[in-house]
Design goal:
By secondary structure, this protein is α+β, with helices and mostly antiparallel strands. The protein contains four helices and nine strands; from the N terminus they run ααβββββααββββ. The radius of gyration is 26 Å and the shape is elongated. The relative contact order is 0.11.
């Protein structure tokens, strides 16, 4: 599949100015006797990014059609590439065995609804200031301060100042016991570049600090009258 993705990176990007270079690069992928530009007439331009293997359908031990996903402008598409594999006895080599085909990518899957959990308002009120402090130190990399929010025996790596804490946007705390799985929507501030010297100049959006929401799932434990973080990870599917 990696071979097909490498081929797609050459095949899907063309312009008249790069025609000779493209033909030369394609020879590393094509079976002997195949047309050097593989069906392109030398006119126009096309560009593809985010090229990744997507699927493979084997015809037999030596032949397969590999689908490669890519992005071109606002469109997400697939490239179907016929591949021949020589087998280990012949050196385990690959070659494009026919002309590829561009196809529409499948639409996003329909996501079924899930029931919202029963929320514990008391625990939410207790956890909110604790998690605000935790995320602030999680962003800054203040190890000593971060440890105050962690369960006994636990340590966590931090962002070390790559982001700053912009706020706890939402917190979902289901009803449960002393150990809970909670979901937190956190706003991170992504540092911008150096501010412009002229305050009257038009603001460059790329130079302004960005704010981005991220969703985390945390395992928290109540010890005495306080909650402590045991683990943090990506939230997966949203709840609530």
């Amino acid at each position: 599949m990696a071979f097909a993705a490498q081929f797609a990176g050459v095949y899907l990007n063309f312009s008249p100015a790069d025609a000779a270079s493209r033909a030369s690069k394609l020879t590393a992928f094509l079976a002997e006797g195949m047309q050097p530009q593989l069906g392109w007439d030398g006119n126009g331009k096309f560009a593809a990014v985010a090229i990744q293997p997507y699927d493979i359908k084997a015809g037999d031990a030596s032949n397969a059609v590999v689908s490669v996903a890519f992005q071109s402008g606002a469109r997400r598409l697939l490239l179907s590439v016929p591949i021949y594999y020589s087998g280990d006895d012949a050196g385990g080599r690959f070659v494009v065995s026919g002309r590829p085909a561009i196809l529409p990518a499948p639409a996003p899957a329909d996501l079924p609804q899930v029931a919202e959990p029963e929320i514990d308002d008391v625990a939410t009120a207790e956890l909110k200031p604790q998690l605000e402090g935790f995320f602030k130190d999680y962003a800054s990399g203040d190890t000593a301060s971060l440890q105050r929010y962690l369960a006994v025996g636990k340590t966590l790596p931090s962002f070390g100042g790559a982001f700053t804490f912009g706020g706890l946007q939402d917190l979902v705390v289901p009803v449960g016991g002393a150990t809970r799985e909670v979901q937190a929507v956190v706003v991170w501030v992504v540092p911008g570049t150096t501010p412009q010297a002229d305050p009257n100049a038009t603001t460059d959006p790329s130079a302004t600090a960005a704010r981005i929401e991220q969703v985390y799932r945390l395992t928290v434990e109540k010890q005495g009258d306080k909650w402590y973080v045991n683990d943090i990870r990506g939230a997966g599917r949203a709840v609530g």
